[in-house]
């Protein structure tokens, strides 16, 4: 039997079964012409480029001279190139007509020359654009905003800043905002609030009327920034359906209080300030300027709770209280609160599961230090009677044995008895859901 005698459906099943076996796919591509297209569909669907793999000039030459391959690329990851220009990025992405996902990370984007013609937004309709730490960590946010200016319609825009990024005293400056960008979901991780506020200026609300989901993780680092975000929410809040917030731990543990300058450089902490007293006050009034009441159509609120041993940099118990004071301001429209759990420090990949004694597991293990009855009381308020609370416990399988995980879930269920009684409590993991 020749290749042409194989039904196309059988060929598709064979090659789809080999989707993650690149050597086999390369062999299939050489069998005959009828197998080539489906093999390339899997071989080139996810394309990544890094200087260790190929030089920038070679990458540009390959993509601009092989249009028959470019049409198979749906996800493109570009990382590690120094001195790359916006013109280069356009030249790389424009020949890919079916591109849906773009990831840019660790790039050093050069500034346009004075006589370079301005680039227009020419990369059309993407489902996801993820921009990780690039040279805007060091040079400011002009490079980031110029980069965003290349895109038009993006369903999900994800921006991640370098850890512990410090703005210069002059701030972010006045930035030239992307003129054609339209976004449905915006996620910012450790991006300074002034940069976010400039990206979504009130004067540009017409461009952001498509925004339905906003996530700000570790962006709010000072209490005065709550009011800045509040001004933004007073304008865009009515259009939001989903909001995620993770306030920075800097709101409750100031380095200059806990650490002396010399001690910080040496890795120690200032014993004069009792770190456990930082962040224990009632902070509900401090969250009022956030203007969550303006989010009148908000349906889902997402936040993260950390657990683990006390650390001077990261007081999990104080952060828990901080979040409770925040969610007390949620509008009545919210019908789902989604909570993810994060161990501090994160478990090492491949590390064996921690084994707890029966008493430790029954009392919640490291999660037993958090004030779960306060969460139960806060979200059992009458105004939240329609609300469902979903707790993602998927991290447990990487940290605890199956038996200990079940015991901790039982502890949480007992601690959140009000939510459980009215059927509003759900535990979720990637494998299954427990109500």
Alpha plus pi helix count: 19
Helix content: 25-40%
The major sheet is characterized as: 13 strands, mixed
The quaternary state of the protein chains shown equals single chain
Task: Indicate the structural class.
Answer: alpha/beta
Strand content: 15-25%
Low-confidence stretches: 258-279
State the separation between the terminal residues, measured CA to CA.
54 Å
The gross shape turns out to be globular
Layout of strands and helices, then pairs:
Blueprint: H1 8-17, H2 22-29, H3 33-43, E1 46-49, H4 56-65, H5 67-70, E2 75-79, E3 82-84, H6 86-93, E4 101-105, E5 108-109, E6 126-131, H7 136-139, H8 142-148, E7 153-160, E8 182-189, H9 193-199, E9 213-217, H10 224-236, E10 242-246, H11 255-258, H12 261-266, H13 284-287, E11 300-308, H14 316-327, E12 336-344, H15 358-362, H16 372-379, E13 388-392, H17 396-399, H18 402-415, H19 417-421, E14 425-428, E15 433-434
Parallel strand pairs: 1-2, 2-4, 3-5, 4-6, 6-7, 7-8, 8-9, 9-10, 10-11, 11-12, 12-13, 13-14
Antiparallel strand pairs: 14-15
Helix pairs in contact: 1-3, 2-3
